[in-house]
Design brief:
The chain has 119 residues and is α/β, with parallel strands linked by helices. It has 2 helices and 8 strands, in the order E-H-E-E-E-E-H-E-E-E. A hairpin with a 4-residue loop joins strand 4 (55-64) and strand 5 (69-72). Keywords: SH2 domain.
């Protein structure tokens, strides 16, 4: 268990569309939640969903079996790894998270500021 189930930011029963709708409704930069990934792949169990600048970003959370740690996005050298999903959230509440828009090839960053609850 990644330590997500008791957390306010974890939307257990939420799919991608519900998550995106909830974040668009919040309309606050830095709004976020974590949901189960649509693919249900053990190597990518969760998705961090972040609202910034009128856009919603779905960032995969990978599970690295060899080290039993978690990391964000695609694998890259020198990436930050965390012992739990909660550590990822706590880290990015303090340090900005880089948001990459692959469509427009732009980079933004925001901290995780507002927990969005999906009813």
């Amino acid at each position: 268990d990644a330590g997500v189930h008791s957390k306010a930011w974890y939307a257990a029963t939420c799919d991608r569309k519900m998550a995106e709708d909830a974040l668009y409704q919040s309309n606050k930069d830095g709004s976020f939640l974590i949901r189960k990934s649509s693919g249900q792949d053990s190597r990518q169990p969760y998705t961090l969903v972040v609202f910034y600048n009128r856009r919603v970003y779905n960032i995969p959370i990978r599970y690295i079996e060899s080290t039993r740690q978690y990391a964000l996005g695609r694998e890259k050298s020198g990436e930050e790894r965390f012992d739990s999903v909660a550590e990822i959230v706590e880290n990015h509440q303090r340090t900005p998270l880089v948001l990459i828009d692959s469509h427009n090839n732009t980079k933004d960053s925001t901290k995780l500021k507002h927990i969005v609850r999906v009813s």
